[in-house]
Design goal:
alpha+beta, 3 helices, 6 strands
Amino acid sequence: MNLPQVLTDLVAAQNSSDSAAYANCFAETAIVLDEGKKHTGKASIKKWIAKANQEYTTKMRPLNFSAPEQILEAEISGSFPGSPIVITYQLTIKEGLIHSLKIG
């Protein structure tokens, strides 16, 4: 599978629980929608992912990426009920950074 570099970096950051590297995949004004909550801006995204990394140990394995639609399907496994699960990530990637991410 051919992933954009920013998604390769995102997966590596997630798999190493590196919150700073994860946040660096996003534009300064990026928006993340996850579990009904909106996280706006790189600092907020870093805080959100750091909290998630503290609560759960997770690994991400990309399964499919649709470039035109910018949709990533990935298997997420870790220390949470129901693991592993397949999650769809709807993205907007511009100029090598993620500008929006909806996890659903």
